[in-house]
Amino acid sequence: MSPSRGLNSSVLRILRLSKVKLNSNQSRTISIFTEIPKANTQIYVSRSHSPYLNLSIEHHLLTKSPAESTILFLYTNKPSIIIGRNQNPWVECNHAAIRSSPLQPLLVRRRSGGGTVWHDEGNVNYSVICPTEKFDRNKHAEMVVRALHSLDVQGAKVNERHDIVMNTPESTVPFKISGSAYKLTRLRSLHHGTCLLSSPNLKDIGKYLGSPAKKFIKARGVDSVRSKITNVHVGNEDFENAVVEKFRDMYGNVETTFVGEEEGTVPAIEKGVEELSSPDWIYRQTPQFHFSYPSAPASEELEPVQTRSWNIAFIARNGVITKSIEHNISSAPGDSNSSSVENSIIGTNVYEVTDWAHILPVHEQQEIPVAKAMNDMLLVGVTPAQGI
Amino acid sequence: MASIARTLRPAASRLAVAARGNTASSIRSPFGVRAFSATRAAYVKKYTKDHEWVELSDDKKTATIGISEYAAHALGDVVYVELPTTPMEVKAGDSIGAVESVKSASDINSPISCTITSVNSLLEEKPATINKGPEDDSSAGGWVAKVEVAEEGVSDLDGLMDGEAYKKFTEEE
Fold this sequence. Notes:
Order of helices and strands of chain A: HEHEEHHEEEHEEEEEHEHEHHEEEHHH
Largest sheet of chain A: 6 strands, mixed
Order of helices and strands of chain B: HHEEEHEEEEEHHEHEH
Number of domains of chain B: 1
Number of helices of chain B: 7
Oligomer: heterodimer
CATH superfamily of chain B: RNA polymerase II/Efflux pump adaptor protein, barrel-sandwich hybrid domain
Radius of gyration of chain B: 15 Å
CATH superfamily of the largest domain in chain A: Bira Bifunctional Protein, Domain 2
Largest sheet of chain B: 7 strands, antiparallel
Helix content of chain A: 25-40%
């Protein structure tokens, strides 16, 4: 039985809870999103920790909810690195560190703008979807600040970058505890943010986000702004309850509906998960970039490098190499040696390479370390499908 | 585009006023070639409530689309412009790309039903061009797309605002 449109959210909640109890490990129950709830104020908390599913539920709410409704959605993800819509995964993270991590962090490209953030079980994400005409960058960050204040996190405030920061006894510089990003469409807009509550991985985040390839890449798109981060030291559920309470103060006293795995069976959400976890979305949506090694690129454009050693440079568009220059000690730019490399590496999908020694025309001893260095910097080993 | 103006409104309207002065040359005068007859005047540049503009060619077969000066300044510094692949057939209101500024990915919507035939790839290379001359349809300008228009697209124009009405609209917003 699918819930009819007329049911209010508290009824839905009871329905949901009883279903979950009845068959918690067996067949999936019918999602409440089979039909979009019509209420003007809606609150959801996800019990899934899959970033691909949670972001797809969020996108479904953004695109399918009633035009005038305001929706709060809270979710927590397993360890993952979430890059902004227009960012470069080779600039933003250290793929070798991700591959060798016991946490097996997932790589995710979200649909909103902004920079790269870390998610894990000690971080709760809040998301508010509202009519675009009522959109305001700070309104709901301020709501979260009020929630934090109600939990005795007194120093929290919104800064000029729309992030939430707080002072700690150890430092005079405020630490970031929450980052915001936005997706604005014609009628509906979304503001989502992280909130670091008790991440056990703070000391390792720098390792995952520090890219060894960064200085060899000039990329179009968006750079991340580094900030010092800290935990708030509040329990996830306490934070969720406090945010729900402040949201209710603003928009009305509605019940919270729990969502999760079963929402992945809604065709639009299932399609969203498939798209977000595909290499096509994660890597091929990368804005054009210029990679040059060992000589760092001077600009976004491919140009002959003035170097005394062998150098390889390429332009990748949609994650695929479209142009390249090999500079040989013996060759001047533009001569036959320079062009030979073009034929061999053009068309290469950067994210599909498993060994650059097979891709580069390695015919000199000195090129072997180059191939190895490129493997360390550029090989990606994340197979999102495993993490769903 | 609708969105963006909100939090930055006071600064935005100041900037928008300043910008109108600076880029007068990029805005086609309705008193030029077009003012010959009343029927032609119906095809001057039109604007949407979402802050996009569309300017139909004299033969009503093609048009240029972009975002308004008001939107460009309200957005703040644009750091990336995502353009559609061509050709792409769209209905009025469909998303045809996006701009990123201030951690926001904002959709650009098509003002009319049309087929996008080419895009302004200068915006990929130099996204700030859209801040400098969003209503400039020259090769150095910040226009977004060139499109082919059929009957439906031409009639979509009737529902849009002319420059005067749009100006009033942004002042009220």
